[in-house]
Structures are given as structure tokens and as C-alpha cells.
Amino acid sequence: MSFSGTSPIVFRMKSCPIIYENDEILIVNKAAGLSVQGGQGVAHPLDEELSKELGYRIHLVHRLDKETCGLLVVAKTPQAAAKWTALIGAKQVKKEYTAVCFGVPEIAGKPLLPGESATIRAPIGKGGKMQEAVTHVTLMRSWELPGTDVTLSLVQLVLGTGRMHQIRIHLALAKSPVVGDDLHGNFKLNRLLRKERGSKLLMLCARRLTVPAPGGKSGRFEVPLPEHILALCGGVL
Model's pTM, two decimal places? Predict the structure, then answer.
């Protein structure tokens, strides 16, 4: 494998842009609203559509929520899938996210200050089956949404573990739910933003990936923030 930092888009598929490709993997930029895997009530999932467009079966090695956009690694073969699943499980792949949330994250009883970082450690699970979950949070900036008394915050997040809906649950626990999250978030404020700003999508993007490369090196990939996040942030970025 060869890496050259942030790679340009190789070519654009109908379902999502491919920003990197080698003999083992593809790194794609998934759009918000696109399911990565099929299931009941799911039409045109990424794994099926991308496989059709490429002419061979791709294999998922990790997941993104349907509502979350950003970088996703998929493998070209079952052998590569097993390898990259193990690398992710061994924390050899660093996943970094950007989110816009309501309020200011409060961790260990203390609201974060701009530029400050802290770690959320709170188990996640269902039916009594709880798993350790760790999310590292950095507050980039906070601002008042014009014409309202709503405070928004732009945060950067690094996963220490990879549980389902981890970022969404952890930020809700930190009294700063992700904007547009109608499962774990603030439904009243979501309705307000849909009415006042037309904001309908989840404001969460898997923006950066750092992956291992030969010779002990690493490759870092990054995508720009999507239009729905930029539009909500207005002139604060």
C-alpha cells in the first residue's frame, strides 16, 4: 500500500465518492441518509450499490450510522476485510469526527471552554448488556444562533471505542445532543431548527481517518465539512 496524506478523489461513484483505493481497501465519503448495509425497509444500501457499480463484492469492516456522513473503509476481499476489521479492533485506525451540538458539552460536571478537551467514559448498551465506551471531545467554539436564544457548539471527537451511536449517546449525556438527532437528541430544539433554518440532517461527520501503512508509517485522509453543516455554522468557521 502507498499513502500520500490526504488523497484526491479517485473517481465518483453514483452512491459516494471514492477518495482512496489500493489492492485491499477503498476509502469512501458516504453521504448522510445512505445506509451502509441492507435490512428490513432499507433500499439501495451502500454495500450493495457500490458492489454493483464496481463489478465485484465489497465487504464492510466498520459502520457509520445512516444519518452520519463521512469517511468509511470497505474491503475488496474477505481476507482484506478480516485484516482491516482486526486493525480497527486493535485501535490501529484513528477515527475523528466533527459535530454541531446544542449547548456546551459538560463533562465531569464542568462545561468545556473553547479549545479545551476532555474524555467521556460512560458505558453503552441495551438490556443490561453494557459495554465500555470512551469518547475524546474538544470544544472548538460556541455561538448563539442569530434570532434565537439557542447556543450551538462545534466539537471535534475521537473515538476510543466504537459502540453503536456512541458519539450521539455520549454528547446527549454531556447535555449537548447532536443537532438533528431525533433518537437521542433534543426533539424540541430539532423542530425549531427545522422550522427556522431548514436543518433536517444529523450534524455529524466522520471527517478524518488515520490508517496504518507499510514501514510503520500512517496515511491520513480528510474530507471537507458537508454543506448542511457549513450552512448551519454560518460565518463562525
Answer: 0.90
